Amino acid sequence: MLSSLLDMFSPMKDLIEFIMEDGVNAEHRAKASSPLDAILSFDFVFKLHLIWKVLGIINELSQALQRKDQDIVNAMKLVKISKEQIFFILRKVFKVTYLHHYRVELFYTIIDMQLQELNDWFNEVNTELLSCVISRCQTLSAAQ
């Protein structure tokens, strides 16, 4: 859905501009300016790209974890890599200073929510348990 919105951004903008210029009547032309202002706003574009990036990382992780041939060791590495990628976005996006609102109220909130979800699934207890299972499997494998 988000990639479709990104793909259709320019045609949507062109269509709204066409309606603003050649709409059936003055009321239609006037109504078209509000959605155009909304989609051209920094707020909309920033949120769209931010969500697209974060959800892309989470989708890759989700797809990898759903593979039947995925082992526990590799799964834990993928979780760690996904967390690092999200923090990389944080450092990259905010190398240039944006308004405090976007940094604290929007971006950090989204990052915190995604990391909290990953931590809920892969908390210290679960990670330790999986590490013990991995260690035990490696010991049994070496004994054979």
TrEMBL record:
Q: Say which species the protein is native to.
A: Handroanthus impetiginosus
Its lineage reads: Eukaryota, Viridiplantae, Streptophyta, Embryophyta, Tracheophyta
PANTHER family tied to this protein: GENERAL TRANSCRIPTION FACTOR 2-RELATED ZINC FINGER PROTEIN, ZINC FINGER, MYM DOMAIN CONTAINING 1
InterPro entries per record: AtLOH3-like
What's the protein called, per UniProt? Uncharacterized protein
